[in-house]
Amino acid sequence: MQAKGGSDQNSVVQAKQDLTWCEQRFPGMKVRAISAQFMSDERVALFEPAVADDMVKVVEEHHYRLARAADLNRESVLKYRP
């Protein structure tokens, strides 16, 4: 898991190091990285990066708006429970 804010971005070196560490630590398991990029307007992007040809590529990306707990009603909270 990597998290960046402002103008900071995930680097190829960081992504490779993280993926390599996971592959060594958990042999035989499929490695899937998760990154978070904090955006403006209380939004955050969560995405799955992959390294290919010495470049970080995004496999999947979703954006979410952060909300204060006090702003949520009971019905909204229950919708997010498993």
Helix content: 10-25%
Radius of gyration over all CA atoms, rounded:
16 Å
The helix-strand sequence is EHEEEH
Please count the beta strands (DSSP E, at least 2 residues each).
4
Shape: globular
Our estimate of the beta-strand percent is 25-35%
Distance between the termini: 22 Å
Count of individual helical segments: 2
Mean pLDDT: 85
Q: How would you classify the helix and strand content by structural class? A: alpha+beta
Question: Explain this structure to me?
Answer:
There is one protein chain. It is built from two helices and four strands; from the N terminus they run βαβββα. The longest helix has 14 residues, at 12-25. A hairpin with a 4-residue loop joins strand 2 and strand 3. With 82 residues, it is an alpha+beta fold. Strands 1-2-3-4 form a four-stranded mixed β-sheet. Helices cover 24% and strands 34% of the residues.
Brief rundown of the structure:
The protein is α+β, with helices and mostly antiparallel strands. The chain has helices spanning 12-25, 74-79; strands at residues 2-4, 35-38, 43-52, 55-65. The mean pLDDT is 85.
